[in-house]
Design a protein that fits this description.
By secondary structure, this protein is of the alpha/beta class. It has 18 helices and 15 strands. It folds into 2 domains: about 10-70 and about 325-460, Aspartate Aminotransferase, domain 1; about 75-320, Type I PLP-dependent aspartate aminotransferase-like (Major domain) (Aspartate Aminotransferase, domain 2, 3-Layer(aba) Sandwich). A hairpin with a 6-residue loop joins strand 14 (about 400-405) and strand 15.
């Protein structure tokens, strides 16, 4: 009997929500159905999704940054198909692989010159776990420092560095000796480092939850203070890296040299999960300091040929299509265009970001009628106003976005780096129309707001 994925997809296309409800996370299905995101997508190309009626949607999430080069890029598909047909030795384990060596070389050519060694993992959270272990072993210290509102992954060690309590609730006790300080606060950082017992400060150059951008002197001072107190400076570029912010690495905006860079997401090309840590020679030589320690840390599937081929092809696509440059140009245009709307919309506070990592933040208005409507939503659930923006963006304009984090009135855009002028106009016009609708009180969008508030209150009372 022949086996066909295409046949399975065709036979069960209409059953995906039922299958998830029966066998997987049924709460996710409830969320999608409640907010009207329960679409059956049949195809995806680049930055576009297509449903069963062939309606085109603009995806501004890109799998939380995974699809930086767009979905189903033909160059990466070709590289993976070729890899499958070459009958290459894979995961021999008592061997070293050619493709991992080539990918390591290509990545290191993009990093600051103090980083000369690579370690591969299967995901971003595994890269964080590796960084924790490498930092502790290298410095012979236990404590790890991170920032409030940070996100570094959901495995136990990475979760211990998570700045959002909702992710940690009920999963303790977590990894000991992990402490949080405010982001962009140099005084708090120096106070924490001054005891000289911090192994590493792990920080996102731009925080993903809220798209919080540091002051210009923050990361240079982070580098200086970490060196002063013997702490390793670890830049978590899992979301910000590989062209996302209009530079290849977000740290390039501030010309700093961390001791480690953590990466994943976009490096996969959207196909085969891959994560990695770029590090100094000293860290590598300290952790793997003898032949009997050659396998002291690793991961069974981490350097598999398909993942390495995907990474190599992704970097080639980014170079050939100048996607970092496109990210900078289109992102600046979107941010500027949305900010120009602030003078006519009381709810709109600002758009901010770098490249195509963008936040659109909303605020309490001054007009009494608008202020009362805002207060109604905030009383039901802080940050609910943004749901009232993202839902019509999706249902009426077919633009897929997300709220930037729990309890904040920020909509986050993290699209593929392949956006065109057409897409830029689509985004700006959709936000303009949707924000305009929020200023019509009463109005249909506020009927949605009342329904959202009702659901939120019911959930609180359960």
């Amino acid at each position: 009997m022949s086996f066909s994925i295409a046949e399975l997809f065709s036979q069960h296309f209409d059953n995906k929500f039922d299958l998830h409800e029966q066998n997987l996370n049924n709460q996710m299905v409830r969320v999608l159905r409640t907010i009207g995101y329960d679409r059956n997508y049949k195809k995806a190309i680049g930055q576009y999704l297509y449903d069963e009626d062939n309606n085109e949607y603009l995806d501004l999430l890109s799998g939380f940054g995974v699809f930086a080069v767009g979905r189903n890029h033909p160059t990466i598909i070709s590289a993976l198909q070729e890899t499958l047909t070459l009958e290459l030795p894979n995961l021999v384990q008592m061997d070293v692989s050619l493709l991992s060596g080539l990918l390591a070389e290509k990545i290191l050519a993009t990093t600051p010159d103090n980083l000369t060694k690579m370690f591969f993992s299967n995901s971003g959270t595994e890269a964080v776990e590796a960084a924790i272990k490498f930092a502790r072993y290298t410095t012979k210290r236990e404590r790890i420092l991170h920032c409030e509102h940070s996100f570094h992954g959901l495995t136990l060690g990475a979760l211990s560095l998570n700045g959002e309590e909702i992710f940690k609730e009920g999963f303790g006790p977590l990894l000991p000796h992990c402490n949080a300080i405010p982001f962009n606060d140099l005084e708090a950082l120096e106070n924490a480092l001054s005891n000289k017992d911090i192994a590493a400060f792990i920080v996102e150059p731009i925080q993903g939850k809220g798209v919080n951008i540091p002051d210009d002197n923050y990361l240079p001072e982070v580098e200086r203070l970490c060196k002063k107190y013997g702490t390793l400076f670890v830049a978590d570029e899992i979301q910000t890296g590989l062209g996302r912010t209009g530079k290849f690495w977000a740290i390039d905006h501030w010309k700093v040299k961390p001791d480690m860079i953590l990466m994943a997401k976009a490096l996969s090309g959207g196909f085969i999960p891959v994560g990695a840590v770029a590090m100094t020679q000293k860290i590598m030589d300290t952790v793997f300091n003898r032949m009997d320690r050659a396998v002291v840390h690793g991961s069974t599937f981490s350097k598999n040929n398909m993942a390495m081929a995907a990474g190599l092809a992704t970097l080639q696509v980014m170079e050939d299509e100048k996607l970092t440059e496109n990210s900078a140009k289109v992102g600046e245009d979107i941010i500027s265009s949305i900010n120009k709307m602030a003078s006519k919309y009381e709810f709109l506070k600002e758009a901010r970001g770098k490249g195509l990592m963008i936040a659109v933040e909303f605020q309490s208005p001054k007009s009494l009628s608008l202020k009362a409507a805002w207060a109604m939503l905030e009383a039901a659930n802080k940050g609910l106003f943004c749901q009232m923006v993202t839902i019509p963006l999706f249902k009426e304009h077919r633009v897929l976005t997300q709220v930037a984090g729990h309890g904040m009135n920020v909509v986050k855009l993290l699209p593929p780096l392949t956006l065109t002028e057409k897409d830029r106009n689509w985004i700006v016009d959709s936000f303009d129309n949707t924000i305009a609708d929020t200023h019509q009180v009463p109005g249909s969008i506020w009927d949605l707001g009342k329904n959202l508030a009702s659901h939120a209150i019911k959930n609180k009372n359960k």
